[in-house]
């Protein structure tokens, strides 16, 4: 008999991210900043979701990516991040500022880029369901839209 795992909805993941962020003793001791690349650490994993900590020095960002079919949510707990969301249509996305306390939830086909354009380090707490197994990275086309560049397994 196989077990069917239930995925959490974006709304449920937003609450998971909010709960994890409120437990500062859970994530604050793990905060690190690395000038060479963004620091990230998986904080919790269950049968139906996982929680990650990400840190961002000024100028650091994700590149345009998706979450391999997982839904997600994140909340900014320090600093400010900027998100651009991409669709299949060849349009130029507008940046969306996410200050400390902001929360963003999304479904399994969400493609975006997150960057710290601010002058101070930023920290965010993320929740995904099901747990991340891969992420695809995209290149922005000159006329708008994106094209797939690569797909990679997620480091655990």
UniProtKB/TrEMBL annotation:
GO molecular function term, any single one: ferrous iron binding
Q: Which residues bind Fe cation?
A: 65, 67, 112
> What UniProt keywords are attached to this protein's entry?
Dioxygenase, Iron, Metal-binding, Oxidoreductase
What are the TM regions of this chain, as residue ranges? Answer: none
Q: Which Pfam families match?
A: CDO_I (PF05995)
Coiled-coil blocks: none
Q: Which family does it belong to?
A: Belongs to the cysteine dioxygenase family.
Name used for this protein in its record: Cysteine dioxygenase
